[in-house]
Amino acid sequence: MNKIVFSVFVDNTSGVLSRVAGLFSRRGFNIDSLTVSETERPVYSRMTIVSHGDDQVFDQIVKQLAKLEDVKEVKVLHPDSSVTRELILVKLKASQAERQGIIATSDIFRAKIVDVSSESLTVELTGNQTKIEAFLNLLGKEKILEMVRTGVTGLERGSKARGEMWDD
């Protein structure tokens, strides 16, 4: 099964998130991650949805999303023609003896220490999923006390802006 990232441009209206999520649920498609935010134009939002399946599933998702009234555009964000990022916050068990190693690992990945307590460190890291997975693997699961991830968000590469593609 392949992973795919959809960028869905929608009206910023009440219930649109429920309708999009409901479409996935009714069709038996899983949402691996979902981020939603208002765009540079407050009347619109952008949803970044990560799912998995085969090409037939992906084609079906695009067609079903395009049929929804609130959906203005559906794009697939391909790794070679888009920029995707994710944010993670990780609270790590860290004794005084362990701190320097965690800080060194964080520095290698350009992560930030955002909170320190007597027995833990909280680290913030932004990057693509490969970078985040590599960071987590290097830390080891036994040190992680708590963790939260934002999910993937992304845009197509290049200078063409969404607002230039069609008028209101």
TrEMBL record:
Keywords: Amino-acid biosynthesis, Branched-chain amino acid biosynthesis, Transferase. Pathway: Amino-acid biosynthesis; L-isoleucine biosynthesis; L-isoleucine from 2-oxobutanoate: step 1/4; Amino-acid biosynthesis; L-valine biosynthesis; L-valine from pyruvate: step 1/4. It is an enzyme of class 2 (transferase). Gene3D superfamilies: 3.30.70.260, ACT-like. Chain A, domain 2 (3.30.70.1150). InterPro entries: Acetalactate_synth_ssu (IPR004789), Acetolactate_synth/TF_NikR_C (IPR027271), Acetolactate_synth_ssu_C (IPR019455), ACT-like_dom_sf (IPR045865), ACT_dom (IPR002912), AHAS_ACT (IPR039557), AHAS_small-like_ACT (IPR054480). It catalyses: 2 pyruvate + H(+) = (2S)-2-acetolactate + CO2. Residues 5-79 form the ACT domain. Catalyzes the conversion of 2 pyruvate molecules into acetolactate in the first common step of the biosynthetic pathway of the branched-amino acids such as leucine, isoleucine, and valine. PANTHER family: ACETOLACTATE SYNTHASE SMALL SUBUNIT, ACETOLACTATE SYNTHASE SMALL SUBUNIT 1, CHLOROPLASTIC. Belongs to the acetolactate synthase small subunit family. This is Acetolactate synthase small subunit. The gene is ilvN.
